[in-house]
């Protein structure tokens, strides 16, 4: 089962999920700086199978995009 985006990001940033609003993203949270973003990308790779490259590093800079990825993966799992 896939880890929910809020839990995944909070774990990667080592912070309380309650401190991450739904519109949060790179440089919008005290711990979501460039190092935090790298930790999130590694978590996305491990949990969701996202390849880490220039495109995905830019694409998944905010919670709405990470949530959309999670939703699309859940839809695809339901069809399998």
Structure write-up:
This protein is an all-alpha fold. The chain is built from four helices and no strands. α1 packs across α2.
Quick description:
The protein is mainly α and 80 residues long. It has helices spanning 5-13, 34-48, 54-59, 63-79.
Task: Please outline the helices and strands.
Elements: H1 5-13, H2 34-48, H3 54-59, H4 63-79
Helix pairs in contact: 1-2
CATH fold category name: Non-ribosomal Peptide Synthetase Peptidyl Carrier Protein, Chain A
Number of E-state strands: 0
| H and E order | HHHH
> For this structure, what is the CATH class?
Mainly Alpha
CATH architecture: Orthogonal Bundle
Low-confidence spans = none
Task: Please identify which CATH superfamily we are dealing with.
Answer: ACP-like
SSE-based structural type: mainly alpha
Averaged pLDDT: 95
State the helical fraction.
Answer: 55-70%
SS summary, helix count: 4
Beta strand % = under 5%
Based on Cα principal axes, name the global outline: globular
Which short descriptors sum up this protein?
4 helices, mainly alpha, Non-ribosomal Peptide Synthetase Peptidyl Carrier Protein, Chain A, 80 residues, globular, 59% helix
């Amino acid at each position: 089962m896939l880890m929910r985006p809020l839990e995944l990001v909070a774990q990667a940033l080592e912070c309380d999920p309650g401190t991450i609003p739904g519109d949060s993203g790179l440089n919008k949270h005290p711990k979501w700086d460039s190092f935090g973003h790298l930790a999130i990308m590694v978590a996305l790779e491990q949990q969701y199978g996202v390849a880490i490259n220039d495109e995905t590093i830019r694409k998944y800079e905010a919670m709405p995009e990470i949530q959309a990825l999670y939703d699309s993966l859940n839809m695809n799992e339901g069809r399998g």
